[in-house]
Write a structure and sequence with these properties.
6% strand, 431 residues, alpha+beta
Protein backbone atom coordinates (compact mmCIF):
# COMPACT_ATOMS: atom_id res chain seq x y z
CA UNK A 1 0.00 0.00 0.00
CA UNK A 2 1.38 3.50 -0.85
CA UNK A 3 2.48 5.24 2.34
CA UNK A 4 0.18 8.18 1.67
CA UNK A 5 -2.83 5.88 1.73
CA UNK A 6 -1.96 4.84 5.28
CA UNK A 7 -1.98 8.36 6.73
CA UNK A 8 -4.82 10.13 4.92
CA UNK A 9 -8.43 9.36 4.02
CA UNK A 10 -9.17 8.19 0.48
CA UNK A 11 -9.67 11.07 -1.95
CA UNK A 12 -13.35 11.82 -2.43
CA UNK A 13 -15.13 13.31 -5.43
CA UNK A 14 -18.42 15.16 -5.51
CA UNK A 15 -20.36 13.33 -8.21
CA UNK A 16 -23.65 13.32 -10.03
CA UNK A 17 -25.24 10.07 -11.09
CA UNK A 18 -27.26 10.69 -14.27
CA UNK A 19 -29.30 8.33 -16.41
CA UNK A 20 -32.40 8.24 -18.58
CA UNK A 21 -35.38 8.36 -16.24
CA UNK A 22 -36.62 5.04 -17.59
CA UNK A 23 -33.30 3.37 -16.66
CA UNK A 24 -32.79 5.04 -13.29
CA UNK A 25 -34.09 2.06 -11.32
CA UNK A 26 -31.56 -0.28 -12.98
CA UNK A 27 -28.74 2.24 -12.48
CA UNK A 28 -29.57 2.54 -8.78
CA UNK A 29 -29.69 -1.24 -8.45
CA UNK A 30 -26.18 -1.37 -9.86
CA UNK A 31 -25.05 1.36 -7.44
CA UNK A 32 -26.39 -0.74 -4.58
CA UNK A 33 -24.37 -3.71 -5.81
CA UNK A 34 -21.20 -1.67 -6.15
CA UNK A 35 -21.60 0.07 -2.75
CA UNK A 36 -19.32 2.87 -3.95
CA UNK A 37 -21.42 6.07 -3.77
CA UNK A 38 -22.89 7.91 -0.80
CA UNK A 39 -26.09 9.45 -2.14
CA UNK A 40 -27.67 12.53 -0.63
CA UNK A 41 -31.21 11.38 0.08
CA UNK A 42 -33.94 12.36 2.56
CA UNK A 43 -33.39 11.02 6.06
CA UNK A 44 -35.95 8.22 5.89
CA UNK A 45 -34.43 4.79 5.49
CA UNK A 46 -36.18 1.86 3.83
CA UNK A 47 -35.07 -1.59 2.76
CA UNK A 48 -34.47 -3.32 -0.54
CA UNK A 49 -36.46 -2.24 -3.58
CA UNK A 50 -38.44 0.27 -1.51
CA UNK A 51 -35.18 2.14 -0.91
CA UNK A 52 -34.50 2.15 -4.66
CA UNK A 53 -37.98 3.52 -5.30
CA UNK A 54 -37.39 6.25 -2.73
CA UNK A 55 -34.13 7.21 -4.44
CA UNK A 56 -35.88 7.34 -7.82
CA UNK A 57 -38.48 9.70 -6.39
CA UNK A 58 -35.74 11.89 -4.86
CA UNK A 59 -33.91 12.29 -8.18
CA UNK A 60 -33.90 15.62 -10.00
CA UNK A 61 -35.62 15.24 -13.35
CA UNK A 62 -34.77 17.36 -16.38
CA UNK A 63 -36.58 16.26 -19.48
CA UNK A 64 -35.82 12.58 -20.12
CA UNK A 65 -32.86 12.54 -17.72
CA UNK A 66 -32.78 12.03 -13.94
CA UNK A 67 -29.90 12.69 -11.58
CA UNK A 68 -28.72 12.33 -7.98
CA UNK A 69 -25.70 13.78 -6.24
CA UNK A 70 -23.36 12.29 -3.68
CA UNK A 71 -19.78 11.40 -2.85
CA UNK A 72 -17.54 8.61 -4.12
CA UNK A 73 -13.85 7.64 -3.79
CA UNK A 74 -11.87 8.84 -6.80
CA UNK A 75 -10.33 5.45 -7.43
CA UNK A 76 -13.75 3.77 -7.79
CA UNK A 77 -15.06 6.13 -10.48
CA UNK A 78 -13.56 4.45 -13.60
CA UNK A 79 -14.96 1.04 -12.69
CA UNK A 80 -18.28 2.54 -11.67
CA UNK A 81 -18.60 4.44 -14.95
CA UNK A 82 -17.78 1.24 -16.86
CA UNK A 83 -20.55 -0.68 -15.07
CA UNK A 84 -23.18 2.04 -15.53
CA UNK A 85 -22.51 2.72 -19.21
CA UNK A 86 -24.40 -0.36 -20.54
CA UNK A 87 -27.44 0.79 -18.55
CA UNK A 88 -27.30 4.30 -20.00
CA UNK A 89 -25.95 5.82 -16.78
CA UNK A 90 -22.94 8.06 -16.27
CA UNK A 91 -20.87 9.61 -13.48
CA UNK A 92 -20.27 13.36 -13.60
CA UNK A 93 -17.62 15.02 -11.47
CA UNK A 94 -18.91 18.12 -9.68
CA UNK A 95 -17.24 20.93 -7.76
CA UNK A 96 -17.45 21.01 -3.96
CA UNK A 97 -20.21 23.18 -2.49
CA UNK A 98 -18.78 26.05 -0.37
CA UNK A 99 -17.99 24.84 3.14
CA UNK A 100 -18.78 21.21 2.38
CA UNK A 101 -16.69 18.56 4.15
CA UNK A 102 -16.39 15.30 2.20
CA UNK A 103 -17.02 12.08 4.11
CA UNK A 104 -14.03 10.15 5.41
CA UNK A 105 -13.14 6.70 4.11
CA UNK A 106 -9.91 5.39 5.58
CA UNK A 107 -7.91 2.90 3.57
CA UNK A 108 -7.81 -0.47 5.29
CA UNK A 109 -5.30 -3.22 4.56
CA UNK A 110 -6.27 -5.57 7.39
CA UNK A 111 -3.05 -5.00 9.36
CA UNK A 112 -3.92 -2.04 11.55
CA UNK A 113 -7.41 -2.79 12.84
CA UNK A 114 -6.47 -2.43 16.51
CA UNK A 115 -4.76 0.95 16.12
CA UNK A 116 -7.60 2.02 13.83
CA UNK A 117 -10.03 1.24 16.67
CA UNK A 118 -8.10 3.56 19.02
CA UNK A 119 -8.87 6.53 16.80
CA UNK A 120 -12.37 5.49 15.74
CA UNK A 121 -13.57 5.27 19.34
CA UNK A 122 -12.39 8.88 19.83
CA UNK A 123 -14.02 10.21 16.68
CA UNK A 124 -14.00 10.13 12.89
CA UNK A 125 -10.87 11.61 11.35
CA UNK A 126 -11.82 14.79 9.43
CA UNK A 127 -11.38 14.43 5.68
CA UNK A 128 -8.59 17.03 5.56
CA UNK A 129 -6.58 15.59 8.46
CA UNK A 130 -3.70 13.17 8.66
CA UNK A 131 -4.78 9.87 10.17
CA UNK A 132 -2.59 9.13 13.25
CA UNK A 133 -3.84 5.56 13.76
CA UNK A 134 -0.52 3.77 13.31
CA UNK A 135 1.43 6.29 15.38
CA UNK A 136 -1.30 6.14 18.04
CA UNK A 137 -1.03 2.35 18.19
CA UNK A 138 2.75 2.54 18.59
CA UNK A 139 2.54 5.19 21.32
CA UNK A 140 -0.13 3.17 23.12
CA UNK A 141 1.89 -0.05 23.36
CA UNK A 142 5.01 1.85 24.50
CA UNK A 143 3.09 3.64 27.26
CA UNK A 144 1.43 0.37 28.26
CA UNK A 145 4.77 -1.44 28.35
CA UNK A 146 6.37 1.25 30.49
CA UNK A 147 3.66 0.79 33.12
CA UNK A 148 3.50 -3.00 32.74
CA UNK A 149 7.22 -3.70 32.54
CA UNK A 150 7.93 -7.31 33.49
CA UNK A 151 9.49 -10.07 31.41
CA UNK A 152 7.17 -12.79 32.71
CA UNK A 153 3.96 -10.81 32.40
CA UNK A 154 4.96 -9.54 28.96
CA UNK A 155 5.58 -13.12 27.83
CA UNK A 156 2.09 -14.06 29.01
CA UNK A 157 0.66 -11.24 26.90
CA UNK A 158 2.60 -12.45 23.86
CA UNK A 159 1.29 -15.97 24.46
CA UNK A 160 -2.25 -14.59 24.74
CA UNK A 161 -1.80 -12.72 21.46
CA UNK A 162 -0.67 -15.89 19.70
CA UNK A 163 -3.71 -17.73 21.06
CA UNK A 164 -6.00 -14.98 19.76
CA UNK A 165 -4.32 -14.98 16.36
CA UNK A 166 -4.61 -18.74 16.05
CA UNK A 167 -8.32 -18.68 16.90
CA UNK A 168 -7.96 -21.84 18.98
CA UNK A 169 -10.51 -20.76 21.61
CA UNK A 170 -13.84 -20.06 19.94
CA UNK A 171 -15.17 -18.05 22.88
CA UNK A 172 -12.39 -15.52 22.30
CA UNK A 173 -13.10 -15.18 18.57
CA UNK A 174 -14.68 -11.73 18.99
CA UNK A 175 -11.39 -10.43 20.44
CA UNK A 176 -9.26 -11.90 17.67
CA UNK A 177 -8.35 -8.62 16.02
CA UNK A 178 -6.70 -7.51 19.28
CA UNK A 179 -3.90 -10.02 18.77
CA UNK A 180 -1.58 -7.37 17.33
CA UNK A 181 -2.01 -5.22 20.43
CA UNK A 182 -1.46 -8.15 22.79
CA UNK A 183 1.76 -9.22 21.07
CA UNK A 184 3.06 -5.66 20.64
CA UNK A 185 2.27 -4.67 24.22
CA UNK A 186 3.76 -7.94 25.48
CA UNK A 187 7.03 -7.43 23.61
CA UNK A 188 7.38 -3.84 24.87
CA UNK A 189 6.55 -4.99 28.40
CA UNK A 190 9.30 -7.60 28.16
CA UNK A 191 11.77 -4.94 27.00
CA UNK A 192 10.95 -2.72 29.97
CA UNK A 193 11.06 -5.80 32.20
CA UNK A 194 14.66 -6.35 31.10
CA UNK A 195 15.42 -2.68 31.74
CA UNK A 196 13.83 -2.89 35.20
CA UNK A 197 15.27 -6.33 36.00
CA UNK A 198 11.91 -7.93 36.78
CA UNK A 199 10.53 -11.32 35.74
CA UNK A 200 7.41 -12.22 37.76
CA UNK A 201 8.79 -9.69 40.22
CA UNK A 202 12.32 -9.06 41.55
CA UNK A 203 13.15 -12.77 41.30
CA UNK A 204 16.69 -12.25 40.03
CA UNK A 205 15.95 -14.15 36.82
CA UNK A 206 17.05 -11.10 34.82
CA UNK A 207 19.57 -8.44 35.89
CA UNK A 208 18.72 -4.75 36.12
CA UNK A 209 19.91 -3.22 32.85
CA UNK A 210 18.72 0.35 33.41
CA UNK A 211 17.14 1.03 36.80
CA UNK A 212 15.07 -0.60 39.52
CA UNK A 213 11.76 1.31 39.81
CA UNK A 214 11.63 0.74 43.58
CA UNK A 215 15.13 2.03 44.31
CA UNK A 216 15.37 4.68 41.56
CA UNK A 217 11.90 6.24 41.29
CA UNK A 218 13.10 9.78 40.50
CA UNK A 219 15.03 8.86 37.30
CA UNK A 220 12.02 6.82 36.20
CA UNK A 221 9.75 9.79 36.86
CA UNK A 222 11.99 12.10 34.81
CA UNK A 223 12.16 9.56 31.99
CA UNK A 224 8.36 9.34 31.92
CA UNK A 225 7.97 13.12 31.74
CA UNK A 226 10.60 13.38 28.99
CA UNK A 227 8.93 10.64 27.00
CA UNK A 228 5.56 12.30 27.45
CA UNK A 229 7.04 15.62 26.31
CA UNK A 230 8.29 13.94 23.14
CA UNK A 231 4.79 12.56 22.50
CA UNK A 232 3.28 16.01 23.09
CA UNK A 233 5.77 17.50 20.64
CA UNK A 234 4.69 14.99 18.01
CA UNK A 235 1.02 15.74 18.74
CA UNK A 236 1.63 19.47 18.30
CA UNK A 237 3.42 18.82 15.00
CA UNK A 238 0.53 16.72 13.68
CA UNK A 239 -1.97 19.26 15.02
CA UNK A 240 -0.19 22.08 13.18
CA UNK A 241 -0.27 20.14 9.91
CA UNK A 242 -3.96 19.36 10.39
CA UNK A 243 -4.86 22.96 11.18
CA UNK A 244 -3.12 24.05 7.96
CA UNK A 245 -4.92 21.37 5.94
CA UNK A 246 -8.25 22.37 7.49
CA UNK A 247 -8.03 26.14 7.14
CA UNK A 248 -4.70 27.33 5.78
CA UNK A 249 -1.95 29.35 7.44
CA UNK A 250 -4.33 31.68 9.26
CA UNK A 251 -5.93 28.88 11.25
CA UNK A 252 -2.61 27.09 11.72
CA UNK A 253 -0.81 30.18 13.00
CA UNK A 254 -3.21 31.31 15.71
CA UNK A 255 -4.58 27.98 16.93
CA UNK A 256 -3.82 26.54 20.37
CA UNK A 257 -3.09 23.26 18.61
CA UNK A 258 -1.20 24.89 15.75
CA UNK A 259 1.89 27.07 15.43
CA UNK A 260 1.05 29.25 18.44
CA UNK A 261 0.57 26.29 20.76
CA UNK A 262 3.65 24.56 19.37
CA UNK A 263 5.78 27.64 20.04
CA UNK A 264 4.53 27.79 23.62
CA UNK A 265 5.42 24.15 24.14
CA UNK A 266 8.84 24.64 22.52
CA UNK A 267 9.57 27.72 24.67
CA UNK A 268 8.78 25.77 27.82
CA UNK A 269 11.09 22.94 26.71
CA UNK A 270 13.93 25.37 25.93
CA UNK A 271 13.41 27.22 29.22
CA UNK A 272 13.64 23.96 31.18
CA UNK A 273 16.75 22.88 29.27
CA UNK A 274 18.39 26.28 29.62
CA UNK A 275 17.82 26.37 33.38
CA UNK A 276 19.01 22.77 33.78
CA UNK A 277 22.32 23.22 31.92
CA UNK A 278 22.75 26.85 32.93
CA UNK A 279 22.74 28.36 29.42
CA UNK A 280 21.41 31.90 29.39
CA UNK A 281 21.08 32.01 25.61
CA UNK A 282 18.48 29.24 25.66
CA UNK A 283 16.52 31.09 28.34
CA UNK A 284 16.48 34.23 26.17
CA UNK A 285 15.37 32.29 23.09
CA UNK A 286 12.65 30.65 25.19
CA UNK A 287 11.43 34.05 26.38
CA UNK A 288 11.25 35.38 22.82
CA UNK A 289 9.36 32.31 21.58
CA UNK A 290 6.98 32.47 24.54
CA UNK A 291 6.24 36.15 23.82
CA UNK A 292 5.49 35.39 20.16
CA UNK A 293 3.36 32.42 21.13
CA UNK A 294 1.31 34.36 23.67
CA UNK A 295 0.77 37.15 21.13
CA UNK A 296 -0.47 34.74 18.46
CA UNK A 297 -2.64 32.90 20.98
CA UNK A 298 -4.16 36.15 22.22
CA UNK A 299 -5.14 37.19 18.70
CA UNK A 300 -6.57 33.76 17.91
CA UNK A 301 -8.54 33.54 21.15
CA UNK A 302 -9.83 37.11 20.74
CA UNK A 303 -11.09 36.39 17.23
CA UNK A 304 -12.55 33.09 18.36
CA UNK A 305 -14.44 34.90 21.13
CA UNK A 306 -16.02 37.30 18.64
CA UNK A 307 -14.13 40.48 19.55
CA UNK A 308 -15.25 43.36 21.74
CA UNK A 309 -14.73 43.86 25.44
CA UNK A 310 -16.23 40.49 26.31
CA UNK A 311 -13.87 38.91 23.79
CA UNK A 312 -10.86 40.48 25.53
CA UNK A 313 -11.94 39.09 28.90
CA UNK A 314 -12.67 35.64 27.50
CA UNK A 315 -9.36 35.57 25.60
CA UNK A 316 -7.46 36.49 28.78
CA UNK A 317 -9.10 33.70 30.77
CA UNK A 318 -8.55 31.11 28.04
CA UNK A 319 -4.94 32.21 27.58
CA UNK A 320 -4.27 31.65 31.26
CA UNK A 321 -6.03 28.29 31.07
CA UNK A 322 -3.94 27.28 28.04
CA UNK A 323 -0.66 27.95 29.85
CA UNK A 324 -1.74 26.15 33.03
CA UNK A 325 -3.17 23.23 31.10
CA UNK A 326 0.05 22.74 29.15
CA UNK A 327 2.00 22.33 32.37
CA UNK A 328 -0.55 19.89 33.79
CA UNK A 329 -0.54 17.88 30.55
CA UNK A 330 3.22 17.41 30.74
CA UNK A 331 3.09 16.42 34.41
CA UNK A 332 0.26 14.00 33.60
CA UNK A 333 2.75 11.68 31.91
CA UNK A 334 4.34 11.09 35.30
CA UNK A 335 1.64 8.43 35.71
CA UNK A 336 3.73 6.24 33.38
CA UNK A 337 6.32 6.06 36.15
CA UNK A 338 3.78 5.96 38.97
CA UNK A 339 1.93 2.93 37.66
CA UNK A 340 5.16 1.26 36.64
CA UNK A 341 6.26 1.71 40.25
CA UNK A 342 2.93 0.30 41.47
CA UNK A 343 3.34 -2.78 39.29
CA UNK A 344 6.85 -3.37 40.63
CA UNK A 345 5.72 -2.82 44.23
CA UNK A 346 2.88 -5.34 43.97
CA UNK A 347 5.21 -7.94 42.49
CA UNK A 348 7.75 -7.28 45.22
CA UNK A 349 5.06 -7.93 47.86
CA UNK A 350 4.17 -11.21 46.16
CA UNK A 351 7.83 -12.23 45.92
CA UNK A 352 8.58 -11.30 49.53
CA UNK A 353 5.56 -13.33 50.66
CA UNK A 354 6.75 -16.29 48.59
CA UNK A 355 10.23 -16.15 50.09
CA UNK A 356 8.88 -15.81 53.61
CA UNK A 357 6.73 -18.93 53.21
CA UNK A 358 9.29 -21.03 51.39
CA UNK A 359 10.44 -24.01 53.47
CA UNK A 360 10.54 -27.80 53.09
CA UNK A 361 7.17 -29.51 53.36
CA UNK A 362 3.70 -28.04 53.05
CA UNK A 363 4.99 -24.47 53.30
CA UNK A 364 6.61 -24.80 49.89
CA UNK A 365 3.18 -25.57 48.43
CA UNK A 366 1.76 -22.47 50.12
CA UNK A 367 4.66 -20.39 48.77
CA UNK A 368 4.02 -21.60 45.23
CA UNK A 369 0.32 -20.80 45.59
CA UNK A 370 1.15 -17.29 46.81
CA UNK A 371 3.50 -16.79 43.84
CA UNK A 372 1.02 -18.05 41.27
CA UNK A 373 -2.13 -16.42 42.64
CA UNK A 374 -0.32 -13.19 43.46
CA UNK A 375 0.99 -12.94 39.89
CA UNK A 376 -2.42 -13.71 38.44
CA UNK A 377 -4.09 -10.99 40.49
CA UNK A 378 -1.31 -8.49 39.77
CA UNK A 379 -1.37 -9.32 36.05
CA UNK A 380 -5.13 -8.82 35.78
CA UNK A 381 -5.22 -5.65 37.88
CA UNK A 382 -2.21 -3.96 36.34
CA UNK A 383 -3.12 -4.90 32.76
CA UNK A 384 -6.50 -3.22 33.28
CA UNK A 385 -4.98 -0.14 34.93
CA UNK A 386 -2.18 0.25 32.38
CA UNK A 387 -4.63 -0.17 29.51
CA UNK A 388 -6.99 2.48 30.87
CA UNK A 389 -4.23 4.95 31.74
CA UNK A 390 -2.55 4.63 28.34
CA UNK A 391 -5.92 5.21 26.69
CA UNK A 392 -6.54 8.24 28.91
CA UNK A 393 -3.20 9.78 27.94
CA UNK A 394 -3.87 9.20 24.24
CA UNK A 395 -7.31 10.78 24.33
CA UNK A 396 -6.85 13.72 26.68
CA UNK A 397 -3.22 14.68 26.14
CA UNK A 398 -2.52 13.69 22.52
CA UNK A 399 -5.70 13.42 20.45
CA UNK A 400 -7.04 16.68 21.90
CA UNK A 401 -4.13 18.39 20.12
CA UNK A 402 -4.23 16.41 16.90
CA UNK A 403 -7.96 16.85 16.27
CA UNK A 404 -9.91 20.10 16.43
CA UNK A 405 -12.89 18.94 14.36
CA UNK A 406 -14.70 15.67 13.84
CA UNK A 407 -15.37 14.22 10.43
CA UNK A 408 -18.21 12.04 9.27
CA UNK A 409 -17.71 8.51 8.01
CA UNK A 410 -18.32 7.51 4.40
CA UNK A 411 -21.56 5.53 4.23
CA UNK A 412 -22.09 4.11 0.76
CA UNK A 413 -25.65 3.68 -0.42
CA UNK A 414 -26.07 -0.10 -0.50
CA UNK A 415 -29.54 -1.42 0.30
CA UNK A 416 -29.80 -5.19 0.15
CA UNK A 417 -31.69 -6.13 -3.01
CA UNK A 418 -33.09 -9.27 -4.53
CA UNK A 419 -30.74 -10.93 -7.06
CA UNK A 420 -30.30 -8.95 -10.25
CA UNK A 421 -31.05 -10.44 -13.67
CA UNK A 422 -28.39 -12.82 -14.91
CA UNK A 423 -27.10 -10.38 -17.52
CA UNK A 424 -26.30 -7.70 -14.90
CA UNK A 425 -22.96 -7.52 -13.02
CA UNK A 426 -23.37 -9.32 -9.69
CA UNK A 427 -20.12 -8.82 -7.87
CA UNK A 428 -20.13 -6.36 -4.97
CA UNK A 429 -16.87 -4.48 -5.04
CA UNK A 430 -15.29 -2.48 -2.28
CA UNK A 431 -14.89 1.20 -3.14
Amino acid sequence: MPWRDSIAPARMERVGVVAPSAAMTDVLAQLAVRAAVELELPDASLEGREEVDRAVRAAVVSGPVSGLVGWAPSRSLPGLAHDLAPLGGAIVRLSYPPGAQPPTMLTRDGTSSTSRLLVDTYGTVPYADIDPARLAGLAYVVMFGMMFGDVGHGALLVLGGLVLRGGWIRRLEKFRRAWTFAIGAGVVSMVFGVLYGTAFGPTGLVPVVWLDPLTDPVPLLLAAVLFGSALLGGAYALGTVNRFREGGWGVALYSRTGVAGSLLFLSLALLTLGLYIGTGALVIVAAVLATLSLAFLSVGLYLEAGGGGAGVAQAAVELFDTVIRLGSNIVSFARLAAFGLTHAALLMVVWDGTRALWAPGWRSVAAILVLVIGNIVTFALEALVAGIQALRLEYYELFSRIFALEGRPFRPWAPVLDPLPSDAPQERREP
